[in-house]
Amino acid sequence: MLQFDPLDGALLVDKPVGCTSHDVVDRIRRKFGIKKVGHCGTLDPNATGLLIIVLGRGTKLSEKLMSDDKVYEGDIKFGETTDSYDADGEVTATAPVPPLTLEQLNDATSTFIGDLQQIPPMVSAKKQGGVPLYKLARKGVTVEREPRLVHIYNFRCTEYHEPIGKFRVACTKGTYVRSLAHDLGVKLGSGAHLATLRRVTSGKWDVADALPLDAILALSLTELEKRVIPFLQLAR
């Protein structure tokens, strides 16, 4: 029977703002001296929330875990369009925000529910010809991008205080939430961009069960082992 190490599995990390998903992997690898460490689903540096970190033999389950559906929450700012579709980008256009009720906003968000062909933003890590799109965008190059099929299960604004709308979206893997924010702004005629983003679930895993990165890095190796979701539990 295959024997597993206590560190063969996954950690649920609540990623802080300002670091990349790879930074999280690197810091855990160096702190605990674990050779094989990976993550399941990139979060942009300014996004927070659930990042599943796989360790040891758990890295063999990366594709399975990445394929799970996701739920995100965050803020959309109306009246400003950016080149990256989020707050990291340069403002490319501004427009007055029309008077909007929460009901009117949700009438608009409901039109995105179902199968959706999304075109990746130019400022994204999606590769074309082996080159990340954001590297081309930095050179002022814009290329045709192949749309990809995603599915939006639910997309609703939960609060609205002009010009900020709080939202929650449930979607398949690979969905660009910032593209949803951008396209919603186009639909409403004001433009918009994603102001904040937080991943709250991935498959059956919830950010409520995650530890902040700093708290994980403060653990001893024995304490870390107690936080690891075992390989066989992940594989179910």
Secondary-structure blueprint:
Elements: E1 9-15, H1 21-32, E2 37-39, E3 48-55, H2 62-66, E4 70-78, E5 80-82, E6 91-94, H3 102-109, E7 114-118, E8 127-128, E9 131-132, H4 133-138, E10 148-161, E11 164-171, H5 177-188, E12 192-202, E13 205-206, E14 211-212, H6 213-217, H7 221-227, E15 229-230, H8 231-235
Parallel strand pairs: 1-14, 3-12
Antiparallel strand pairs: 1-3, 1-15, 2-3, 4-11, 4-12, 5-6, 7-10, 8-9, 10-11, 12-13
Which characteristics define this entry?
8 helices, Pseudouridine synthase, alpha+beta, 236 residues, 25% helix
Textual characterization of the structure:
By secondary structure, the protein is of the alpha+beta class. The chain folds into 2 domains: 9-67 and 204-235, Pseudouridine synthase (2-Layer Sandwich), CATH 3.30.2350; 70-201, Pseudouridine synthase, CATH 3.30.2350. It is 25% helix and 35% strand. The chain has 8 helices and 15 strands. The strands form 3 sheets. Strands 1, 2, 3, 4, 7, 10, 11, 12, 13, 14 and 15 form an 11-stranded mixed sheet that branches. Strands 5-6 form a two-stranded antiparallel sheet. A hairpin with a 2-residue loop joins strand 10 and strand 11. It is globular.
